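Write out this protein's structure.
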Amino acid sequence: MSMIRDLRAAVRPASRISLRKESGPYDTTRDPAATTAVVDCAVYRDGRRLETGSALGPQEAMRLVRRDGGFVWIGLHEPNEAEFAGIAQEFGLHPLAVEDAVQAHQRPKLERYDDSLFTVFKTVHYVDHDQLSSSSEVVETGEVMCFTGRDFFITVRHGGQGSLRALRHRLQDDPELLAKGPSAVLHAIADHVVDGYIAVADAVQDDIDEVETEVFSPGRKGTPRGTDAGRIYQLKREVLEFKRAVSPLLRPMQLLSERPMRLIDPDIQKYFRDVADHLARVQEQVIGFDELLNSILQANLAQASVAQNEDMRKITSWAAIIAVPTMVCGVYGMNFDHMPELRWKYGYPLVLGITVALCLGIHRTLKRNGWL
């Protein structure tokens, strides 16, 4: 069983970046000029792709499988109801699952029908940005729906991310693994999706660290300088979108790893535990991100409140200083004939000196108390 021991090495990319850049003849993004949603259709027998010399249609591929064995793997990109109707009828797909696959925007889930499993994965892609702003898009999501049968595997992809081209190539390079049938492909896709979650979680962690540093880094006079609350809130919204992709998938992965299923090879099933374990770790990270962003947002708002109080204290202090000359000028501005020192030669410099002394005394007292 050396193949099983090397299972993760076979389905996991050597580099997550190369996964997005790899090119090949089987592109899983639908050509806008194409008249069909099918982007690849192939028959696999004994773990090897059957070369027919021409492109196969789903019906023709299924006839080959029924006649000579193997299984068919069909990849579709954003099919409409009419485009998917023929495939659904050919493979006996349940109408509810077909409706979900066409409509998209589904919650990650696992559903069992008579002769097939229907699995929904949310793919997550990290959007690179020079600087995080209050309108930055951090994560972009797509969907991959999988129909797993005894002799067929159908993927329906929605969104511009989550290409399965490189994954198909790697599986085709490992015939011993593909010989395990459609359940091996289902595990490879689940592992591929969860690996994407791990990469995105690492990138989001860097963004959170950057915001946290800005919030708590010292500004002028050694006080935290804070940051724009809109940036923190936008990052929190993106983390919430990430969480909606990760959390609902944990239960389906646990079911695939723990509950015996007729369509899942027993040798493959045990490796779903590894996927579920990695998914649980990502879920804990995402929950931690959400809680940490709550704390950062509250700290930033508290800093803004402290800064406002600081400004109010300064304004109040200067108002107290200005009140002294205002009072003195108000008193001597009254039109009375008999006022102390009104006709005295040194009255003006004395009053002016007392006013300045009082202002300096108040300023010094407030400065010592930290108000200025």
